[in-house]
Amino acid sequence: MFYLKFIMMIQIILKGLKVVSGGLFCLFMTFSATGQTWVTAGTDAAGDAQASGLDALKLEYAYDKSTDKIMLRVTVSDLLPFAASPSADFSFFFPDGVDGGEPTGTHWTAPAVPVHKTITMYADKSGSAPSNYTWTSFPRTIALAGGSKKVLCSGCISIETKTAQNQLIYTLDRKSLITDAELGSDKKVTLTVVANVGHDIGWDDNLTKNGSMTIDVSTDQNVGIKQSTQPQQYHSVYPNPNHGYVTVNSNESETIELYSVQGAKLMEWNKNQGEQVFDLTQYETGVYFLRASSSNGDLLWTQKITIN
């Protein structure tokens, strides 16, 4: 379990998400049959992160029935210093166990709490956790936390960093976390969650122990809230840091601009939907910002990048 201490932990275990040191986010999450919208799962006071690290303030969730995807949005006090290397994990206990009858495991931050599955995401500039490696992209997995610790999926979670909004958004397929069989015949289950956030494979906020979340994908549910009619926008930028080549992957056509830390515009590209590699080798090592806008000029996202 030691490796979990370093892995970027996005414990998106769905029922109780704690996103702050000493703070517990009790999240009762209902997945409706139509549309998706962000719902506040919990809040936490500012200033309680370890060693002035990533300090989570609010956790929100959304479920998109049309795509069967789960999304978690964490708002922090100041994302910019940590935008290149945020970390998070979420570990879940399934009341009726998991497919295959795997035994329960534990989590290093809550050894007394049984867990069945763990979602981990981490990113760093370089380092070791638990063995030496160099930066490639955001490692992201969902694994059994019991006896076999079998990896159920790798690279199956996306992370979006919105520095202007101080938000981190994690998206994954619902079935990657909880299968139809694990939901049961009524398509509803309540899970327990252990969660943590941090940066550079370190942990700043312990989102301790016994959060809870109710997952409901039955077709007759109505959460009684306004539903979004807009498609979910996402993007990813990797590797970050990089050595002069950076890939941007997004689901929209957009204009990408490169800025210096002094605010000078250095370059502009028109990018189509999907993945595109940008050559930045003409620029010196250091910190820059990518800014994406839509065809009508609306700001879509801003991303800090580092050229090594």
Give a quick rundown of the structure:
The chain has 308 residues and is an all-beta fold. 3% of the residues lie in helices and 48% in strands.
What attributes characterize this protein structure?
2 domains, Immunoglobulin-like, mainly beta, 308 residues, disordered N terminus, 2 helices, single chain, 5-stranded antiparallel β-sheet, 48% strand
Task: Explain what this protein looks like in three dimensions.
- It is a single chain.
- The protein folds into 2 domains: 2-216, no CATH class; 235-307, Sandwich (Immunoglobulin-like), CATH 2.60.40.
- It is globular and about 55 Å long.
- The longest helix is centred in the middle third of the chain and has 4 residues, at 174-177.
- It has helices at 174-177, 180-183, and strands at 10-11, 39-43, 56-64, 69-76, 86-93, 105-107, 110-115, 117-121, 126-128, 132-134, 140-144, 151-154, 157-162, 167-173, 188-199, 202-216, 235-238, 245-250, 254-260, 265-271, 274-279, 286-293, 299-307.
- Strands 1, 5, 8, 11, 12, 15 and 16 form a 7-stranded mixed β-sheet that branches. It has a 5-stranded antiparallel β-sheet with strand order 2-3-4-14-13. Strands 20-19-22-23 form a 4-stranded antiparallel β-sheet, with no helix packed on it.
- The model is unreliable at 1-35, 126-136 and 220-231 (pLDDT under 50).
- Strand 11 (140-144) and strand 12 form a beta hairpin.
- With 308 residues, the protein is mainly β.
- Helix content is 3%, strand content 48%.
- The protein has 2 helices and 23 strands.
What percent of the residues sit in helical stretches (DSSP H or I)?
A: under 10%
On the 0-100 scale, what is the average pLDDT?
73
Protein structure class:
mainly beta
- Biggest sheet, open or closed, and with what strands and sense? 7 strands, mixed
Q: Which residues form runs of ≥5 with pLDDT under 50?
A: 1-35, 126-136, 220-231
Rounded to the nearest angstrom, the radius of gyration is: 19 Å
The tally of beta strands, per DSSP, is 23
Overall geometry: globular
Total number of distinct structural domains:
2
Distance between the termini: 32 Å
How many DSSP H or I helices?
Answer: 2
Strand content: over 45%
Q: Tell me the series of helices and strands, N- to C-terminal.
A: EEEEEEEEEEEEEEHHEEEEEEEEE
